[in-house]
Amino acid sequence: MSRMAADLPHGLDLANWMTGLPPDLRTAPLKDLAIPGTHDSGSFYQDKSFDLSPVGQQLTDIIHDEAVQILGLTVNDVVNNWSVTQHDIGFSGQLNVGVRYFDLRVAWRESDNSLYFVHGLYGMKVETAMQEIADWLNSHPKEVVLLDFNQFYSMDDFHHKHLSAILKDKFGSKLCPKTIAPNPVDVTLAELWENRHQVIVFYNNDEVADHHTYLWSDWEYVHSPCPNTHEISKLIDFLDREVCDESKFSVSQAILMPDAATIVGNLGHSLKSVLATPARPFILKWLKGKRSGSGNHGINIVIANFVDLEFLLAVIKLNYN
Predict the structure, then answer these.
(1) What is the mean pLDDT of residues 16-29?
(2) Which terminal Cβ of the chain has fewer Cβ within 10 Å, N or C?
(3) Cα dihedral 203/206/208/214 (nearest 10)
(4) Is 119 a catalytic residue?
(5) What distance in Å separates the CA atoms of residue 12 and residue 154, rounded to the nearest whole number?
(6) Residues 64, 87, 119, 159: which is the catalytic one?
């Protein structure tokens, strides 16, 4: 995908698209820019050889062992097929093609006392992933990422302290504090560049966030309603009804979510083949009627499963409408 980005029309460099924004957008609030993101961003890889994560355990009542065995699949195979949400491309690869918002779910794994990204199965180690992002930012000093840690599993105070320490260690002064402006949601690229900040961390644990200036409370700063449907028509209706919250960063979740009947009826298939691929043209059509910014037809952050160049370009180009 990164090789494809080099041949984009109009000279748009997706690895540096924020750097190349015109002056008026550099001084506009970040919440008024159109920013592409990925849903369950860490689920590009999952370890099928290991036990199910706390999320995956919830699926075992849906997946009947007998039906799985008839298909010659294991429970882990089915969980993987329905929980992988991105192409086999890591964080630096996603960054290279323009992704700037990451939707992250984390769990503590007792077997090796480490934090992992999860979505059904355990994926990449959090510490390894944060180092990868930090290394990428070092070579792209004017690009900014939004890390949304919005779900935690099997984590107590000790584990949250460990995660916050990883973030501080890997990003250091790149972390943008909530004190950057009287109203931090109005922060601009120009202000971030001036202070050499490149990372905004949203954190869905208020008690932990209150103790760290570099952790922004998820509920206070992010509006991210979930469509919670497996039907394309209901998804588009949901997206059309949602309006950007001017007081927060607003996330449009352009995703379909399988229910039990969908999974059981398609055990040999996947989230991508049954839901994501059929929804793609409808999501692209919906994006054509949008613009960056708040108000009617305005969008801020848009996330999807299995994002491709057409989706990423469609979102980023809204900044030029």
Answers:
(1) 96
(2) C
(3) 50
(4) yes
(5) 42
(6) 119
